[in-house]
Every structure is written in structure tokens, then in C-alpha cells.
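Every protein is a chain of amino acids, and every chain bends into a shape of its own. Below is the pair of lines this work produces for a single protein:
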Amino acid sequence: MKSSKRKICQILALVLSGVGASAAMAVPVVQGGGSSLVAPTIGAIGLSTTEIGLFGTSEGSFTYYSVGSGAGQNAFLGNQPTFLGTGVTGTVDFANSDAALNTTQITSYQAGLARTSGPLIQIPYIVTPITIPLVNAPAVTSTTTPQTTPGQAHSIALNDDDLCGIFSGNFTDWSQVTDPEKTTKYPAGAIKVVYRADSSGTSELLTRHLAAVCAASSATKPGITFVDSLTFAASFPSGVPSNFVGATGSGGVKSQLTSYLAAGTAAVAYLSPDYTNTFLAPSSSSASSQLQVASLLNAKNGLYYAPTAGNATTALSIAAPGTKNAASQPANWVPIAGASYTANANPASGYPVSGTSQILVSQCYADPAVKTAVHDFLNNHYTNSTFATVIRGNGFDTVPSSFQTAISNDFLSNASGWNLDIGNAGVCTGTITGR
């Protein structure tokens, strides 16, 4: 009898362990990476102040690798997880990039991996300004410029000539930089410039503006022509100026600036708000250093703007595609040419260096559980007010409501009826097995 009971218990234990294993297997690993700009917002499992933390693990175990926009693009487009880090294996389910994919990248994907993975979806994820943080800069004497930094009612102001002079290497000392409010030079002090040495969407958003305004600026260093690029150094074919210092990732730029701050060295850089201070990003885990930030003069309307989420949205000139044909083209969701691109590169109002950060996903996934997890995560990102609080707490804005509606109707619910939605049975079938 005891032997029979023991066998029954053993069988029950095996059955229960099998059920447990099956339940564990039902929760897939959903991995992606890219932009360091959005990394504090997307975050990690277990952090209630991040999107992944809020989403939890009941549908999928999300992992995000902060490796820069360029690496994220490469990882997703080739489904090559090694771009996310040494030793990373498995499928690349999504990527985030502050730079839009170019025409060549989209065409190559459509002609290749899309034939089995399904169409590529590229949609705006958040709205972001690109700030100009300063350390050991001249004292703020303005009484009219906007606040950008905790405990500092006003800010140092820079205009396009100042940006062109500093970032081209023509201005290497504050005594060369004109305070646009007073039309006098700032007090002397040598300037270091910290730039992104990796492939960065933050660099692309900055160089997009510099390419639009610096060709006409007498402050630009002779022989330097800025190009819209993920690689900041691409504008310097003969090498960056001697006062420039490269850093990897947004965290690397912040670390270099805090090092200069402690050493008493004056420096200028460019960063998303979540790496600067808690005035701009009140709940960011990466904004504890309280870096001083400049306000910028918008050349089109003559007003000073702080790099706030609202001022970034004001600067945007974008509209969601309104037809099936237009919506099915990834480039139409983030213009890389034409009137809209020009308007965003040098906006008529709002903070001058602003744009969107994108997410890349596939329409089809081989594992139905991954499809559900990706779909539901995006649905929360675009429609859940708690997720919106996380976004704004990091200094960003949610995409305009018209975009939220279009993204939901086209890619999440198929309310548009265009069969562009994630996991659409009419598309994800046959040889299109999904990634």
C-alpha cells in the first residue's frame, strides 16, 4: 500500500512539474534594443517606473539592450542578436531608433527578410527634444530666458550661429560665443565638446538641424559641411577638432560631462532630457546629476525655448498617413525627405532641435505568444495613461493623438480594415511564417 501511495505521489509530482514547465514555457522572451535615449523609459523588469516594469511578465519577459540606434537598426533588419551584445542569441523581436530608416534599408528588408518575417512596421514611439547640456559654463545673468535647470530661474541662451560655431569647432572658447539676448560675448573659457562616437539617433536629430542651418551661417568653421547622419564624425572627413571628445551611448556622454564638471573643465554636449536633470525629466533614473542646460533661440519666430516635451511637440510638423497605400510604407510614418522633413529640421516654432524616436516591429511573429506580447505592449504604450506618465516623467511627450489613433486603427486593431495589423491572419500565412 505504501509503495502504491509512493508511486501515485511520484506520478502527481511529475504531472505537476510538467504543468509548471509548460506554464513557464508559455511566457516567451521578447528581446530588442537600440536607442539609449529611450532606455530609461523602456527600462527593465521589476522597475515600476519603466514601461517594461509596468507591463510585467505575465505575457512575455521583455529585455531591452541599450546599444545605440544604429546597432538596434542592424539587429532588427538582419535579425542578428549579436548587434545587441556579445553572447546575445535568439530572435530580435523589436528595436528602437531615434533615426528613421533610410530608403535603402527599407527596400533591402522588403526584398529579403520580409518575405518570411512579414512586412516591417516603423512608427513614432515618443516625441523628444535634444538638449544642449553645459558644465562650468558662464554664469547665467538673464532675467527673461526660460528655466531649464533645477534651482536656476533662467538659462544660458544659444542661437543657431552659436550651435554652428561650437559644433563645427570654429568656436573653442566662450569668448567667441555671442549671447543672443545681449548681443555681447560670453566671458572667456575654453570649451570641450563631447559627441557621440557610436552610431546614434541622438546625433542624427542634432545633425539634421545643423545641416539645415549651418551652411548659411558665417559662424560655421570653413570647410565643414554638416550632413544628416547617425555618425556625428561623418561631418568631419579629416577628423574631429582637437577639442572634441567622443563618448559611447547617452550614459557615456553624461559620465564624461560629470567628469569635466568635477575637474572644472568647461564642456558642451548634446543629450536627451532624461540624462540631464529633473526639471526636464522629473522621474528619470538617469537625471540625477542635475546638468545645466541651454535654451535655444528659434530663428523662425525669434522666441527662446526650453527643451521641454511640450516645446518639442510644438516644433513637430507631421501627419499620419491617411490611405492604405501610404500607411503601408514605413517611410511615410517618419518623413526623411520633402517638405515635412525640412519643416522638422528647422521648425517654424517650438524648440529647434526636436523629433521623434521610432520603434521597429514585424507584422508577423512565428510564436503566437510573442505576437500577443508585442501587440499588447504597444497597445499599453499608446493608450495607457500610466505608461504616458512614465514617458513624460522622462522628459518626452507621447505622439500626437492623431498618430495614436492611426497607429491603433492600422497596426493594433485593424479598425481601418487595411490588414496592416500585427498578426493579421491574411498576411501572416504560408511562407510568411514570421520572425
